[in-house]
Amino acid sequence: MKSILVLAALIAISGTGTAYAQDSGGVDVDGTWYLGEGLKKGDYFEYTLCEIDLNGCSPVELKIWIKGDTVNVSETLWDAQILVTDGENTIKGSWGLGKTVPTPILFDDDLSDYAVAFKSSIAWLSAYATSNEKDRIHGPQEFKSSSWGALGPVGGGLESYLIPSRVESIMLPDRTTDSVVVGWYNDNDNEIWLVDDFPFPVKALAYAGINSDTPPVMFEFDLTQYKEGITKDPFVDIAETIQQSDLLNCSKEFLDYTSDRVSTNTYSMTIQYNFSPGFPIEGCEIDWKINFYNKYNDMEILDQVNYDIWVVDENDSILYSYAESINKEKLYSDFGQVDHRLPVEYSGLVRYAIFVHGLGPEDNVNGEKSGYSIIEIQVERNPLLEKTNTDTTETISPTIPAWIKNNAGWWADGTIDDDAFIQGIGFLIKEGTISVESTSQSDTDAKEIPAWIKNNAGWWADGTIDDDAFIQGIEFLVKEGIIPA
Question: Does residue 336 share a domain with residue 248?
Fold first, then answer.
């Protein structure tokens, strides 16, 4: 995935733009802007995006294609087809965007978190600038205006205002033009780049409005591609990642929470935890809502908390770290209130540990308040899962032995060679699991196994494709004489 901190070649801020800022805000540029200005059927956008409540601002790639119109009861919406690349996952679906304010009104369940992140970042200016010309406060905003509105707590104080601050030259995929930078300015420069007659902002960097030496990024995004007049679905040939939760029919609703307050083992603070479901199921997810409180005041939530969520054994040795699973050393919250959904990878009586490294900025943690709390949760074993001796999870097949799937995974990652894998496939043919006549008498030593077969084996081993898709690939090898029938 492209780094959110690296601008694509298609978007580049010159850094030497001419400034026309007035003392009270506003720039000497005619015209107005609002979210969705000029949006039309066939528009296509690509963004790199991070948002504070989406994976802790880990970047994702968001692609949007305006297919046309869709009707919701009596309301006509934009039919926006969506493709998200989030780490190793690819999610496809659709949003219904409002016509007056093009933010998601309808969205597929799998895209709900990304719809919320879109509203809070790329579409954030909809709180100040919409196409409703009858709304004097939230209608189209003039670039010459001294202010587009007060920020309040978002800007870190009641005296912060959203103002057009300067003009900078910016390069879009199809042209170079001037952009107007709007923002609010306190201890940090929070800025959003706009182009007149362009539907969405093209770039932004904003920080959370809190008192901190190192405030976290609230949102950051860059437009990396834009096209007009796209008539064919650009995502039709892109395969969506099959989520394990879908294969296991896991519930995606988290309603009834189990709650309690416990002290850390060092009595450094009080931790209020809430988790759902009450009886998690192996292979699905558990939703954690956690608050960190001052041990002397159960109404005071602590800030600048450095923490992690672990699974530990009976000796408190770490079996799983949520931070490590998302490639972080630890987790951080400025506000002392967090919400995480974790995969449930163990069954039986599972010991979760909410571990606090300490308080303070991420790069200067004070360990005086460190400690942990253990929460024991009974996790139901999932009959669709079988634990292997390597602690990997696999779907049980009624026809193919589990050790064959292990072999496929080991072959895909290079642990075993082609011959060992072929011996396992020979077993399937001998036992009649695969029944096909060879149509070629080619020398098996003369042909290599195609790379896509090895890819299939890896995907089958981790549950991305089903037995039938894997067997079709093996039948191809037999028919081609690469594996003897």
Answer: yes
Residues 298 and 396 in one domain: no
Give the integer Cα–Cα distance in Å for 165 and 160: 13
311 and 408 fall within a common domain: no
Q: Answer yes or no: is 234 within a domain.
A: no
- What's residue 433's pLDDT? 59
| Residue 21 scores a pLDDT above 50 | no
Q: Residue 95 corresponds to which tokens in the numbers above?
A: 């949003």
Pair (298, 410) in one structural domain = no
| CB of 183 closer than 8 Å to CB of 192 | yes
Helices and strands, number each (H, E), in the chain: 7, 26
pLDDT of residue 182: 96
Tokens of 35: 């979210």
Share of the chain above pLDDT 90, in %: 46
325 is a domain residue: yes
* Same domain (yes/no): 379, 395: no
DSSP of 78-139, one letter per residue?
A: EEEEEEEEETTEEEEEEEEE-SSS-SEEEE-GGGHHHHHHHHTTTTGGGGT--S-TT-TTTS
Domain end marker among 227, 261, 289: 227
280 and 151 both lie in a single domain: no
Cα separation, 201 vs 94, in Å, equals 21
Tell me which of 171, 194, 227 is where a domain ends. 227
3-state secondary structure of 311: strand
Helix (H, G, I), strand (E, B) or coil at 223: strand
Quick check: 313 pLDDT over 60? yes
Residues 405 and 381 in one domain: no
Instruction: Tell me the residue range of the domain where 449 lies.
Output: 390-479
pLDDT tens-place string over residues 221-261: 999 999 999 999 999 988 887 666 666 778 878 888 999 99
Could you tell me where the beta strands, DSSP code E, fall in 201-312?
203-207, 217-227, 258-263, 270-276, 285-294, 297-301, 305-312
Predicted confidence (pLDDT) per residue in 45-72, tens digit: 999 999 988 887 889 999 999 999 998 8
Residues 181 and 87 in one domain: yes
Among the residue ranges 9-18, 318-327, 464-473, the one predicted with the least confidence is 9-18
**How far apart, in whole angstroms, are the C-alpha atoms of residue 169 and residue 179?**
6
Number of domains into which the chain is organized: 3
The CA-based dihedral angle spanning residues 110, 243, 50, 147, taken in that order and rounded to the nearest 10 degrees = 0
Tell me the CA end-to-end span of the chain in Å, nearest whole number: 42
Of residues 202 and 477, the one with the higher pLDDT is 202
